[in-house]
Amino acid sequence: MNVSGFSPGPGAPSVFTLKIRLPPDESLIKELKAGCCQRRIKKSVQLRCMGDKARTLGAGWLLGYAVNIVTGFEGIVAEESDASGRPLLSAFPELYVSLAHSGPYIVCALSPFPCGIDVEKGSPELIRLAEMFLSPLEYQQSRTVERGNLEAWLLDVWTMKEAYLKAKGTGLLTEPAKVTIRIDGSSLHVNDGSTPCAGLCWSAYRQQLEGGYKLALCWSNQI
Fold first, then answer.
1. What is the helix (H) or strand (E) element at residue 142, kind and residue range?
2. pLDDT at residue number 223
3. What's the domain range around 86?
4. Is residue 143 domain-shared with residue 45, that is, in the same domain?
5. 172 and 77 in one domain?
6. 119: closest CA among 9, 206, 29, 1?
7. What is the pLDDT of residue 195?
8. Residues paired with residue 216 on neighbouring β-strands, in sequence order
9. Which whole-number Å values give the CA distances from 58 to 64, 107, 148, 150, 206, in the listed order?
10. CB atoms within 10 A of CB 107
């Protein structure tokens, strides 16, 4: 396993990435399971695909690693979740948590403020699915993007939009196509027609990972 951590800057969440070997073997599954709470282990048992098992357990292992680095806590981190599926830590209610995984990558963000993280791999399939997650304004913007750059543009929008929805606390309970985002350097401008997050200033960070994967991070410095 290859694990690393960083923060994009002052006031930004602590970000941790884990890259696992695929397909996983039993020794990797055992190693990951040793760092997970029983709730996550039970969830992994229901999965037939070994890759899915490894990613699910990897998320629990990485969360424990991240909490240890940020708080100094040593031990198994108990996880809960809210209605949107957002992870909650009863032992650390002051921390906001976001997790995501795709392919060999698992990513985690921890912050005292709302945050969301996503990781996805670029694919031509994004072009076919664009109308499902782009708002009408974004769809019009997509038609001005050069064909050779469209897939990368869509990947930026999709990953950041999902990161924002996680930070907002609704996840995909909010239809992505009803949210319009604009990434302006390290700032994220959002129009989702709602008021719960009105007035919050959202920050954005993107990182290209090996293998065509993109990491997107969104956070606020207010609660």
1. helix 136-142
2. 65
3. 2-112
4. no
5. no
6. 206
7. 47
8. 118, 206
9. 10, 9, 34, 32, 22
10. 26
Residue 166 CA to residue 161 CA, distance in Å, equals: 9
The last residue of a domain, from among 79, 112, 145: 112
Q: Which residues of the chain have pLDDT under 50?
A: 195-199
CA angle 84, 85, 89 (to 5 degrees): 120
> Which CATH number does the domain housing residue 202 bear?
3.90.470.20
Rounded-to-integer distance, Cα 25 and Cα 54, Å: 9
Q: What domain count does the chain have?
A: 2
Q: What is the pLDDT of residues 12-47, one digit of tens each?
A: 999 999 999 999 999 999 999 999 999 999 999 999
Length of the chain: 223
50-71 and 38-45 helices, crossing angle to 10°: 170
Contact 66, 114 (CB under 8 A): no
159 and 87 share a domain? no
Residue 73, pLDDT score = 96
Helix, strand, or coil (residue 214) = strand
- pLDDT value for 200: 58
User: Which residues touch 203 (CB under 8 Å, ≥6 apart)?
Assistant: 11, 12, 186, 187, 188, 218, 219, 220, 221
Report the C-alpha gap between 161 and 177 in whole angstroms.
10
Q: What is the pLDDT of residues 105-128, one digit of tens each?
A: 999 999 999 999 999 999 999 999
> Could you give phi then psi for residue 19, rounded to 5 degrees?
-115, 120
pLDDT above 70 covers what percent of the chain? 96
